[in-house]
């Protein structure tokens, strides 16, 4: 066993001012820095990463506009992390706001057990979507896996209810669609339950896909067992591409022949035990009707339960690196002394990965997840938020072990058999204290019925035997056929929708949708899907044609269709084109359909407010309140309108009420006078108040963004200037607009990665007003290249910026990517890299990319060596570059030099790059005619004796179900438009 983690990560004592509250039985929360030994993440790359075809967790690994971090310090040092501590008489928690609001510590004060894996160091590995990721605690993943902002800060607020309940609210706007997410970590008086209350709000005008997985880490060893409900008879891999029985695997899974292993050593087919899984493995349960699962440490006699309503939270998953040298090497990359862990993940609105659901415009989804520690009762057979039971059945004897989450004096444990009560024992139950009740002479096991009741007879938890496995196996996913092989227009449409919704990294929906429209040129569903995709790309005129075609089909026989989404989408496109009156008409019609009444009504009210038609807008908002669900955007817009019409008190009352339920809603907080520090959220609020017609306030907020310090989370200063210029221009202040554009041209461009349609519109207005604005063209090209479907337009903007005389390493590199991947001009691509390297000769990323391009262009290794050898020290600063250099050395006959690098340099594996260092090691040994040996520890890898699921076929085509790939696809020939 490892060293007690509590001794390695010291938690501060409760402040004296809060001690009386805790002693009185109420939870407390306070903010106090926590010193943790930390391996710092490096500065992000200055280059935007266009990874839309990168395979990550089975879906798109696109990371733009997040700056991508590619390095981790090799030496650790103490760091004070912002921390929020939460404690009651049973549980101690630590939340780290600077790391996505994750729970870093979950400690059971009664049993002295860390029920969540407490990593005593912050030691990132490059396995996150945007680079660094740490193990331990609970990571809240949204809107995809792993959380894009997992290494970025969240806003925090501590809330205490009248009954003493404490909630630590964490809030961010996701870096991609800018949807709002709040999760509140909550402790109640007298309860050992950790609640996480979640509010996911789509504050955008378009429907958005999302998932939510809570990633819970548990420290493991040979005696740790994951448990799932007894009705779980099968588990599935990512995307349900493979299936096996559970808990005993009945077929090969992840390349491991478990039945064969069990023939030699009985029990080794049980994949609920960490010790039996030798390779990196995921499995997700299939079709359980139960609400709980968790993990149990048999050596410690403790564990935890997760509970959430299955109707919205069906996802239950285990992930492990595997109990073998390969997995242990990964464990060592993520901790110094705390050993291996598994992840027991809980999915809401999802049961697989990738598996995305939808949020409608303005929609808010709320749900709660519950965790609690359990004492020495064994694996759990049934659980509720009130209690958990373990039931042993041995012939005619039954033994029931019980754990509760609140003190339950006078509780009863009742055992029935064949409808008769065979045991009814009264007990005083306490959290953290296991209690056991037995019954002998039970005649019929299948008729067992175990109940735990409180003193008033209310059932806390009830267990009955699970149903036997169904003879018919659950379905397994299949790769969709090519468009030509699909018979129906509907299936073509649905296949494209699946690829879009699940963010498939290597398959575009457009071939399926084109085929559907070839067969039925008026199909409304497909026109809507295409219009939505084109709108997101900023191709408004093209989107308009498809939206009008959809409206034409749905109104062919009926002017009042059952689904008015076509009118709503038409309104969005018309609004972007500046055709306000037509947009308002379309929104009005969309509001006839209850599904679209709320988003269309809000869009209409917002449009009217922007025109200054305040009373008309208020009337619409009042009507929506009677028929539409809660939408913070609507409350904010009403407050702005009420203040403009002199009703300040009414506005404040509405804000006060709304903030009780939505305490960190950004625009509501701003309107209520609270301070907002996050520049991304400030920009979002500025756009919301601008769209409500309050351009003066929008300009003030944009000014704060313009003057903000550039940080590794991104640089919004330049785009804030362009947005301000667009406001001034629209209001006739052309000199002010020009001044902002001049400042934008002179601004710091480090990590300036604009995104979203508002940024696109503002940049296009700048280019129209000043065709010589080279920096604006650079930023516009960057946005277009990242948006998908407009890479030829992006290349044209970059070429224009270069033609205007702008010489910037990021611009030249970006244009080189486009020259190779889009226009196919290899000569120009090479020349642009040469120019970029000349401007930034000490940039290892730039030289690495140039060398990768050299390999793709077929340059001889001797030529590559001649270019790299003078810069060997720089080359060796990057793991991927060092591996590439080792291969070059082998090719030019310098195997001894390659061997020395591999023996002396410390490597760290990266997501998708597993096996690269090991392959270089084996190739080097072969070149030196040395026997094949295990790699040295400094390579950071060990051999995997099993073959993982295929990622790329022999033909070079990416497997449809691939979950990761080594290459980042910077230099991949691709269609100009999808």
TrEMBL record:
<dbReference type="InterPro" id="IPR011990">
    <property type="entry name" value="TPR-like_helical_dom_sf"/>
</dbReference>
<dbReference type="Pfam" id="PF17128">
    <property type="entry name" value="DUF5107"/>
</dbReference>
<dbReference type="InterPro" id="IPR014718">
    <property type="entry name" value="GH-type_carb-bd"/>
</dbReference>
<dbReference type="GO" id="GO:0030246">
    <property type="term" value="F:carbohydrate binding"/>
</dbReference>
<protein>
    <submittedName>
        <fullName>Tetratricopeptide repeat-containing protein</fullName>
    </submittedName>
</protein>
<dbReference type="InterPro" id="IPR033396">
    <property type="entry name" value="DUF5107"/>
</dbReference>
<feature type="domain" description="DUF5107">
    <location>
        <begin position="62"/>
        <end position="374"/>
    </location>
</feature>
<dbReference type="Pfam" id="PF13432">
    <property type="entry name" value="TPR_16"/>
</dbReference>
């Amino acid at each position: 066993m490892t060293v007690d983690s509590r001794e390695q990560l010291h938690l501060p004592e409760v402040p004296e001012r809060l001690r009386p509250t805790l002693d009185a039985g109420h939870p407390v929360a306070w903010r106090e820095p926590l010193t943790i030994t930390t391996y710092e993440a490096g500065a992000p790359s200055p280059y935007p990463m266009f990874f839309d075809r990168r395979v990550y967790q089975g879906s798109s690994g696109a990371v733009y506009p997040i700056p991508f971090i590619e390095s981790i310090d090799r030496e650790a040092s103490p760091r004070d992390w912002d921390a929020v501590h939460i404690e009651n008489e049973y549980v101690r928690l630590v939340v780290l706001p600077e790391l996505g609001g994750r729970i870093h510590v979950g400690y059971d004060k009664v049993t002295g057990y860390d029920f969540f894996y407490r990593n005593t160091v912050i030691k990132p590995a490059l396995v996150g979507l945007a680079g660094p990721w740490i193990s331990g605690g609970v990571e809240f993943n949204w809107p995809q896996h792993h959380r894009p902002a997992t290494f970025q800060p969240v806003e925090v607020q501590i809330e205490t209810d009248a009954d003493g309940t404490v909630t630590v609210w964490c809030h961010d706007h996701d870096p991609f669609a800018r949807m709002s997410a709040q999760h509140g970590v909550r402790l109640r008086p007298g309860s050992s339950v950790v609640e996480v209350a979640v509010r996911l709000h789509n504050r955008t005008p378009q429907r958005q896909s999302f998932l939510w997985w809570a990633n819970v880490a548990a420290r493991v060893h040979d005696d740790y067992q994951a448990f799932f409900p007894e009705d779980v008879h099968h588990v599935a891999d990512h995307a349900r591409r493979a299936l096996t029985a559970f808990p005993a695997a009945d077929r090969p899974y992840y390349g491991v022949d478990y039945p064969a292993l069990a023939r030699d050593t009985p029990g080794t087919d049980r994949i609920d035990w960490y010790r039996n899984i030798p390779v990196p493995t995921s499995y997700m349960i299939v079709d359980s009707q139960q609400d709980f699962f968790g993990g149990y440490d048999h050596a410690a006699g403790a564990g935890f339960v997760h509970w959430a309503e299955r109707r919205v939270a069906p996802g239950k998953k285990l992930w492990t690196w595997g109990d073998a040298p390969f997995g242990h090497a990964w464990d060592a990359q993520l901790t110094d002394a705390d050993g291996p862990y598994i992840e027991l993940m809980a999915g809401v609105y999802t049961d697989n990965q990738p598996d995305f659901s939808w949020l409608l415009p303005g929609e808010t989804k709320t749900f709660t997840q519950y965790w609690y520690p359990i004492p020495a009762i064994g694996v759990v057979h049934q659980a509720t938020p009130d209690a958990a039971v373990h039931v042993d059945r041995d012939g005619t004897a039954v033994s029931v072990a019980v754990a509760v989450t609140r003190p339950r004096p006078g509780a009863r444990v009742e055992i029935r058999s064949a409808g008769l009560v065979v045991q009814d024992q009264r007990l005083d139950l306490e959290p953290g204290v296991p209690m056991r009740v037995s019954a002998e002479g039970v005649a019929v096991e299948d008729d067992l019925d175990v109940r735990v009741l409180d003193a008033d007879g209310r059932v806390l938890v009830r267990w009955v035997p699970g149903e036997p496995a169904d003879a018919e196996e659950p379905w397994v996913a299949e790769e969709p056929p090519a468009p030509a092989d699909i018979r129906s227009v509907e299936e073509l449409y649905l296949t494209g929708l699946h690829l879009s919704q699940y963010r498939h990294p290597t398959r575009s929906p457009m071939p399926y949708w084109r085929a559907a429209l070839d067969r039925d040129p008026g199909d409304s569903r497909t026109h809507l899907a295409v219009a939505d995709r084109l709108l997101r790309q900023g191709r408004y005129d093209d989107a308009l044609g498809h939206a009008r075609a959809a409206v034409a089909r749905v109104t062919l026989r009926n002017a009042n269709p059952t689904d008015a989404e076509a009118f709503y989408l038409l309104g969005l496109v018309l609004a972007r084109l500046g055709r306000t009156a037509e947009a308002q008409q379309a929104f009005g019609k969309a509001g006839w359909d209850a599904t679209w009444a709320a988003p269309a009504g809000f869009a209409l009210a917002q449009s009217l407010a922007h025109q200054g038609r305040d009373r008309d807008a208020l009337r619409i908002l009042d009507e929506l309140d009677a028929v539409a669900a809660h939408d913070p955007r609507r409350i904010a817009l009403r407050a702005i309108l009420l203040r403009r019409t002199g009703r300040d008190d009414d506005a404040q009352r509405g804000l006060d009420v709304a903030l009780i339920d939505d305490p960190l809603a950004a625009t509501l907080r701003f309107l209520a006078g609270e301070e907002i520090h996050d520049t991304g959220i400030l920009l979002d609020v500025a756009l919301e108040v601008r769209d409500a017609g309050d351009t003066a306030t929008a300009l003030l907020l944009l000014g704060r963004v313009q003057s903000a310090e550039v940080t590794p989370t991104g640089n919004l200063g330049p785009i804030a200037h362009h947005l301000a210029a667009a406001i001034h221009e629209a209001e006739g202040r052309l000199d002010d607009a020009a001044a902002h554009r001049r400042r934008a041209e002179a601004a710091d461009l480090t990590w300036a990665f604009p995104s979203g349609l508002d940024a696109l519109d503002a940049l296009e207005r700048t280019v129209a007003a000043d065709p010589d604005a080279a920096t604006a063209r650079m930023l516009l090209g960057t946005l277009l290249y990242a948006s998908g479907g407009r890479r030829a337009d992006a290349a044209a903007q970059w070429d224009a910026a270069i033609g205007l005389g702008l010489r910037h390493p990021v611009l030249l590199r970006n244009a080189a990517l486009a020259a190779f991947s889009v226009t196919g001009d290899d000569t120009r691509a090479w020349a642009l890299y040469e120019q970029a390297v000349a401007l930034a000769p000490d940039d290892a990323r730039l030289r690495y990319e140039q060398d990768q391009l050299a390999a793709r262009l077929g340059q001889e290794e001797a030529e590559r060596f001649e270019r790299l050898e003078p810069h060997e020290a720089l080359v060796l600063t990057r793991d991927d570059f060092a591996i590439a250099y080792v291969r070059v050395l082998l090719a030019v006959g310098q195997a001894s030099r390659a061997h020395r690098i591999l023996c002396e340099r410390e490597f760290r594996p990266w997501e998708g790059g597993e096996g690269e260092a090991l392959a270089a090691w084996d190739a080097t040994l072969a070149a030196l005619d040395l026997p094949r040996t295990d790699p040295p520890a400094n390579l950071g890898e060990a051999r995997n004796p099993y073959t993982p699921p295929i990622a790329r076929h022999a033909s070079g085509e990416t497997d449809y179900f691939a979950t990761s790939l080594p290459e980042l696809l910077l230099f991949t020939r691709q269609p100009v438009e999808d």
